[in-house]
Amino acid sequence: MPYPHLLKPLDLGFTQLSNRVLMGSMHTGLEEEKKGFNKLAAFYEERAKGGVGLMVTGGIAPNFAGRVEPFGSQLSHFWHVKKHKIITSAVHKHDSKICLQILHTGRYAYHPFNVSSSAIKAPINPFKPKALSERGINKTIRDFVKCAGLAQKAGYDGVEIMGSEGYLINQFIAPKTNKRTDQWGGSFENRTRLALEIVKQTREKVGTDFIIIFRLSMLDLVDDGSTFEEVVQLAKLLEQAGVTILNTGIGWHEARIPTIVTSVPRKAFTWISERVKQEVSIPVIATNRINTPEIAEEILSSGQADMVSMARPLLADAEFVNKAAADQSDKINTCIACNQGCLDHVFARKRATCLVNPVACYETELVFKTTSKAKKLAVIGAGPAGMAFSSYAAEKGHDVHLFDAADEIGGQFNIAKTIPGKEEFYETIRYFENKLKDENVTLHLGQFQSVESLKAMGFDEVIVATGITPRTLDLPGFDSDKVLGYIDVLKLKKPVGDKVAIIGAGGIGFDVACSLVQPESHTLDLEHWLDYWGVDKTYENRGAVKPITEDKVNKTVYLMQRKDTKVGAGLGKTSGWVHRAELKRAGVKMINKVEYKSLSDKGLEVVIDGKQQYLDVDNVIVCAGQTSNSKLYDELKESGVTVHLIGGASIAAELDAKRAIRQGADLAAII
């Protein structure tokens, strides 16, 4: 059997899990949509059908104060039970189990009625919390217990009590946020009282044959967080109080250490799960940046954990477990940890989805039914949009021919994969290579096509996905060899001097800057990465944080933009701060409101804040946007061919693989 440890059942005594895969909690936004629970049921059922042993829902509040936002989901009343039964009934059609996560956000609640252990405002929230009174604490405990009881009535197999990531329970546990002087603050015993009372009273309420997962913050990654000794002591007390499984929590949301973005090395935090596992006898779950069955098997076979939590990887591919069981890991659509479709959407109050899997959270809407009339289709351009359309259209039964002038598929992904911290894009290209082969898409690489050649081959319809052309700047001196494009730097690897000006501070500008100032080991060497971000594996300090170690950078880099907004303002909410921090630490000078004039022997002439300056640079790298390659589309349309335009060839405002892949999928669904 492939992956024997990953696929081995886990006996919990009163019940058994079919394998060691936990789909970790993910808020999708469907929890708040009208008729969203029917869509949620389809989302979870796809993962249950795909072989997941145990799932945890997105966070559901036990009371109003604990909601993520004013209209966030809550399970507190008997009339809430009915809609949750839609989910549990769908999951239980298959050999899978599901737990409801009880999440009280505490001071992270994005509304003015938030509460916490003490009245200390979170740096990531404009609303200052009210300190809970003793009466309020006891009511909160009762609300957790009631929520668990209602979850049991709704058919859930258990609950996960959220005690990490800096949410309410974690706020009571850590000295950083708990400044109380009563029986709920001060000593370790007092600070952990809330967590233990919730677990004890929940176990009394639900009985013995019900899963209770406690998500324990094993690394707070903030100053004045828990010590390792306190983490272990609490883990043992939670076991005694009736917890079935301990899940690993890594980092508070306000921590200035990245924990889930692409640049975080795979299985970066399993070492702490391993240490805690040695101290308890109940199963321990490892989490964060585990995205392949090989990595999961390695964690389990080495004894670092009893289960692995994979949330976003199961957003990316609902069939992850079944494909692993069939020894087809090369066909898994791997999560690249970009956060663009999932977390960035949720923070923007939009429905979550996935850059590499647009069907995620749209299972009832984006459907690919077998066609009753197969067409011969030409797809011009094998970038993200072209690859996505081709694979989905062929899946429906169309005869698809995919053309590209390059000698490889991937388009802009072939540039992205070269950037330190974005190596995961290799996985996406590998997935599409296999998917196109499995769906019998005919590839025609290394050749251009024209209206005449396409007409001669007799296609019913043509899909133009020819992507973009990087924009050049028509300025004096910009015909110099000193001026490079981002493709020259990232893909063609042309040499770059030690003094560089980057024109354009969008995503590509940041990628170019990162490629210039970061060593290749930055994201591939775990020990280097932990030192760089100040994660203390020795756990000598509270919160496991230590002074950071800087990479030595011998380059002078200017990252400039015309806009008067903050440099990097357009980057993703959950990853942009990481890129800005890395470049700031490398000494990159990020400048806005720049007017570009010329390039001469004096240097790059610019106007900044109304003042003319000459920047002494060896090279200028232009990352000033793109223009759409839509000429072929226009010519085909004029000649009467039925033609469609998708991807960057349609909209070239920013390189947006998420939009491109979704456009390809949407067209394939209706063609």
Automatic annotation (TrEMBL):
<comment type="similarity">
    <text>In the N-terminal section; belongs to the NADH:flavin oxidoreductase/NADH oxidase family.</text>
</comment>
<keyword id="KW-0285">Flavoprotein</keyword>
<dbReference type="GO" id="GO:0010181">
    <property type="term" value="F:FMN binding"/>
</dbReference>
<keyword id="KW-0411">Iron-sulfur</keyword>
<dbReference type="InterPro" id="IPR023753">
    <property type="entry name" value="FAD/NAD-binding_dom"/>
</dbReference>
<protein>
    <submittedName>
        <fullName>NADPH-dependent 2,4-dienoyl-CoA reductase</fullName>
    </submittedName>
</protein>
<dbReference type="GO" id="GO:0033543">
    <property type="term" value="P:fatty acid beta-oxidation, unsaturated, even number, reductase/isomerase pathway"/>
</dbReference>
<keyword id="KW-0560">Oxidoreductase</keyword>
<dbReference type="InterPro" id="IPR036188">
    <property type="entry name" value="FAD/NAD-bd_sf"/>
</dbReference>
<dbReference type="InterPro" id="IPR051793">
    <property type="entry name" value="NADH:flavin_oxidoreductase"/>
</dbReference>
<keyword id="KW-0408">Iron</keyword>
<keyword id="KW-0288">FMN</keyword>
<keyword id="KW-0479">Metal-binding</keyword>
<dbReference type="Pfam" id="PF07992">
    <property type="entry name" value="Pyr_redox_2"/>
</dbReference>
<dbReference type="GO" id="GO:0008670">
    <property type="term" value="F:2,4-dienoyl-CoA reductase (NADPH) activity"/>
</dbReference>
<dbReference type="InterPro" id="IPR001155">
    <property type="entry name" value="OxRdtase_FMN_N"/>
</dbReference>
<dbReference type="GO" id="GO:0046872">
    <property type="term" value="F:metal ion binding"/>
</dbReference>
<dbReference type="Pfam" id="PF00724">
    <property type="entry name" value="Oxidored_FMN"/>
</dbReference>
<feature type="domain" description="FAD/NAD(P)-binding">
    <location>
        <begin position="376"/>
        <end position="644"/>
    </location>
</feature>
<feature type="domain" description="NADH:flavin oxidoreductase/NADH oxidase N-terminal">
    <location>
        <begin position="6"/>
        <end position="327"/>
    </location>
</feature>
<dbReference type="GO" id="GO:0051536">
    <property type="term" value="F:iron-sulfur cluster binding"/>
</dbReference>
<dbReference type="InterPro" id="IPR013785">
    <property type="entry name" value="Aldolase_TIM"/>
</dbReference>
